[in-house]
Amino acid sequence: MAGADSLTPRLAALGHVMHAFGIDDGEVQALDGPPQDGPAPRPVLHGATLLLPEAPAAWAMAAEDLHLAATLHAIGHLRHSPHRLPTGNRKPMSLALAGAVEDVRVDRLLMRRHPGLGRLFRRLLRSQPELPQVGFEALVARLQRVLLDPQADDDNAWVRKGRALFEAQAGRLDDAEAFRELVSVLANDLGQLRVRMNLQTYAPPLPWHDDNSHLWAHGADAEQAETTLRRPPPQGAPQSAPPQVADEASDPAPLPELARHDYPEWHYRLDRARDHWCTVIERAVPPAFASAPTPPARTPLRLARSRRLDRSQRIRRQWEGDELDLDAATEVFIDRRLGLAPDPRLFRRNGRTVPRTSLLLLLDLSASTADLQPCGRSVLDLEREAAALLMEALREREDRLEVAGFNSDGRQAVNYLRLLDFGQPLPADPATVLGAARPGLSTRLGAALRHATTRLAKERSAQRALLVLSDGAPSDIDAFDARHLVEDAARAVVEARRKGVRCFCLSLERASEAELRRIFGHGGYRIVDDPARLAAALARSYAELAGCD
Fold first, then answer.
1. Residues 6+ apart with CB under 8 A from 391
2. Closest by Cα among 301, 294, 255 to 428
3. From residue 364, how far is each of 309, 323, 387, 438, 467 by CA, in Å?
4. Residue 79 lies in a domain
5. Nearest to 401 by CA among 358, 369, 453
6. Which of 435, 460, 481, 508 has the fewest Cβ atoms nearer than 10 Å?
7. 136/160 Cα distance (integer angstroms)
8. 221 burial class (0-12, 13-18, 19+ CB within 10 angstroms)?
9. What is the pLDDT of residues 121-140, one digit of tens each?
10. What's the CA gap between 173 and 167, in Å, rounded?
């Protein structure tokens, strides 16, 4: 083919470059063009053989420079990168991001040991087409640009965070393992921002970077899936839409609205609240959504007995009642002595007992709750199971219970899903109601706490408690300062406690302990290291909040 013919004269010389760097069995060959509907062509490193495509037309660069950079980059992989790493249950977006960070690490190692290569890479970067502002590939390209060119700058918060995290590890470029946590943090942020990756069209943004297939040991099924994906469809076959690869949770379809409520949000930099800043949207659970498989059978929760005395209210000065009101009778004699008309209400009766505790259980329904735990179940599955067991355990109690879930799509759309209201009879199978809780979107905790506090403030119980089940720190698509939503949630907890509402949080994420401590205070949270113990931890927390043994 013509593309291969134009590349052929350079192949032998590039092979000599590999030999000069100590890759004695290195070889460079031409790569056949990909299918028209496939991703942009990128080099492929197979063993010590480098397959090179033609230079992309969109880049205003000399093909000789590009192919030399690709060869040097491949040499860097062969000398410094791990190979055939197990993918485990990592998602394609996480693997692609890990490959992009590894590409930069290798280039930075080459630039450190051979400074002239830095000039080559930066010259190629200057020929890069204008980058779009959004999308996974665009963000990765912008991150790689600022990491390879010290003079480059970018105003995107995710890119700036990635640069800071990478530079913090720059002294450990020889250790690929040192950058794993960086990848996890950045991939989690992309999930919270709901950035999507199109697997069918994605290619490493910089054309001298190979496809990184040599980094991973995919199973046979994954290799077959990859082969099938890259193969063009048969002639006349219907074209399907490109698959969207993201977290396991996709954004859930909106449920019917009940009401909208505006709440302030605390701005710690301004040291004041911004009124009417967030909108909480109450949503109902239609019958069609209120269904779910019954969770695996678990031992029912055994709740501790209350340590408070059960004293019924006595209502005085009644027209009729269970017994004589002695205080009222005494006042009748006094009024007669004074010549006043006495109050004829001389009886008292026992009133209904005020419920001891009103507990609002608030479930985090953000996209990250779809992530699987070591026990093989998702965070949300564990939340739903724990909530169902608590509902069953409270069936014979006088305490009142409300169960709600929340997630957010920016400050103007904080969804509050009312799964079970105060005073509503418990369903025969709590799992059918909890099945409406679906993972998706983000975690604007402060607004959800304020709305839950408003609902609790209407309760007449002696004790009112708000218990949050979550898997991490708050975040949202329009909050780029990681501290902002943490400080706002902390302020919401302070406001709730001033109104007599006790707040507590159970979390499955040890990495977010610092944020939870800031929000709920010392003693206001508990980390559940064993996800299978979440239900037991919930029962214990209920006992503490309700004042039980």
1. 401, 403, 420, 426, 430
2. 294
3. 34, 50, 12, 10, 11
4. yes
5. 358
6. 460
7. 15
8. exposed
9. 998 888 877 767 678 999 99
10. 10
pTM: 0.56
d(CA 22, CA 48) in angstroms, rounded, equals: 11
- Same domain flag for 200 and 269: no
Q: How far apart are CA 216 and CA 273, in angstroms?
A: 49
pLDDT attached to residue 226:
38
The token duo for 178 is: 């040192």
β-strands 414-420, 357-364 pairing: unpaired
Question: pLDDT, tens digit, for every residue of 24-72?
Answer: 888 999 887 655 555 668 899 988 899 988 877 656 667 888 899 999 9
Cβ atoms 350, 390 nearer than 8 A:
no
Query: Alpha helix locations (H) across 169-242?
Result: 180-193, 220-230
- Same domain for 343 and 436: no
**How many angstroms separate the CA atoms of 471 and 246, rounded?**
19
Contacts of 437 (CB under 8 A, 6+ apart): 363, 365, 380, 383, 384, 405, 417, 419
Distance, CA of 306 to CA of 547 (rounded, Å): 6
Say how many domains are in the chain: 3
